[in-house]
Amino acid sequence: MSLSPRLLRNVALPTAAALVIGVGIGLVAPLSPASADVAPYTKTTPGTESYTLPSWATAARVEIKGAQGGGDKGGKGGSVSAILPLSGGTSIQVNVGGQGTNLVGGGNGGGAPGSGLSTGTNHFGGGGASDIRVGGTALGDRQFVAGGGGGGGDQAGGKGGAPAGTDGIDGILAYGYGSPGKGGTQSAGGAGGAVTGSDGTSGIAGASGDGGVGGDYAASDRAGAGGGGGYFGGGGGGAGRGTGSFVAHGYGGPGGGGSSYATGTATNVTFDTGAKTGDGSVTITPMGLPTVTTGTATAINAGRVTLHGTGVTNNAAISDAEFFYSTTSGQTCSRQGAHVEATPASKISGTLAFSANLSGLAYGTTYYYCAAVSTGQGNASGTEQSFAIGGEPQVTTGNPIALLTQDDEVTVQGTVNPNSVATTAVMRYSTSQAVVEGGGGQTATVSPGSWPDGTATTRSVTSTITGLTANTTYYYQLQATNTVGTGNGGVNSVTTKIGPANTVLTMPSNPVGNRSSTFPVRVATFDGVPLTGPVTLTVTNPLNQVSTLCIANVTNGSGSCSGSLLVGTNLINAKFNNGQYIGDSGAAVLKVLGVSTNVAKVSGSGSNRKVNLTGKTYKKKQSVVIYKRKGGKTTRIGTATSNNSGAWSRKGLKVGGGDVYVFTKLKKMVSNKVRV
Asked: Which residue in 196, 216, 213, 200 sits closest to 256, CA to CA?
């Protein structure tokens, strides 16, 4: 037995998937409870399939597109997107429409083209609608429908859409074109197009779910195109008949587009007319209230606490996150009690980790709290947790006492409330703020430093920190501990004063003008600790001019530097400053000679005693006169001339026995006297 072309065109061909399964329905396993967003379910091949929402779902976001009508001019399918409240585990029948061909209408309601020559290319089947059904598989169980486009021909088929599909494009009646099918509406199928002439038939009106069949024209390709499937299908186009000189133009009319539909319980509904080419499609994204976890509270200290929580969006964007807390259990996860906003507070998809800080909490009190989030689908909460603000000490770190701030020690203040528990306290300190904030550093005693009776009264305390470095910033924090816990005050800072340094300058012996002289320097604290750093020597010369003489780099308490001076009376001052200690030797008078005398060697005895002499002059090539003085009588004993370096010498000068002094004169300038 063979099927006639007319019957063949009214049978929707099964898809490959349907053939494999046998009955044309595939089963999609339900998803397990989500720990993160679940990928959408999508079906893009024509046919029927069953999809089950995961157990945690409370709604489904759907995007449904109808199929295009057959032919190059087939009308495009409509689309609908929306959110539908549904329970987890709900079974959804998914029906995807197929594009019409020149033989049949597309699956799921596409109207077949009218009977004509099977090789005709001007009368195609309408596109099938796409829909989802809940609670059954009948047409009355449809929740959403995206209308299919009308079949095309010589003119374009109507588009699937809402509130109604569009009509097929009308040809020129005078040329013998059949009339186009009308678009389906929300309450009725589109009317079939009228036949032109008497040899063919009119198109059939659309019905609920199905597009109308195109009008027949058995002897030619003038048959009408099928209407698109839909909530109500579009009408089939009427057969055409060209006459006279228009015999080549009288093609059948195109089909009307099917209507789209959304159930009244849906939200966020959007329709689009003529949105899809080719086969239809269905995408379902399960949506649920976020999975919320209330985390463990941290940093519980001194009436403060940090709360933590996480929320998994489950395809429902989190718009707000917060914590509810109370001293009464069993109510916070019902959003009762006080609440605090969390940060960050929103997440489009994925996992949101959020937290919030509480302060000013009552000591010795248990608090209950619950993490909560809000979405467009509703609110969700975690499970209730608790934390206790025990009787750990309440501590405040005070300021330093200015009058007791020295270069090597400071006295700082604070308060401690033991909260009726035996408590001890220490002061922690360091030159590093991070060390103190991290609970480290050295410790100093506190006075008073313990409260064995566990008073509930706030007590003032002081701590003297010794052994510090001058002109240095120290960070300190008062810390008190009892059997309940540890309380920490804030971290404060104090800078020690600049310490005094004992600076001692040693003057050179018999310095000569314009000749380099060495100045030894010693520097230490007044406790005798050697210091290291620069000492600047300044000089006020006989012309009353002040300048830097030299700089001595003192290491471990001692150093020296050299410089030359003018002949006459000079004032020398040494100043030490290493950034922590400063010292000043005070101005000292130094007489600078024009000529000096030194005994280099003494030989012989009695009347035969002789000396070798050396010295310096403030200028080169200077003549000096050498004298001896004995018993109140001054006698000239010789002369000498300085060299280019200003040095002079004379050997074998007879001075005789007894108590004798020698000296030299340079013009009116007299050297030092040297005892022989």
From this structure: 213
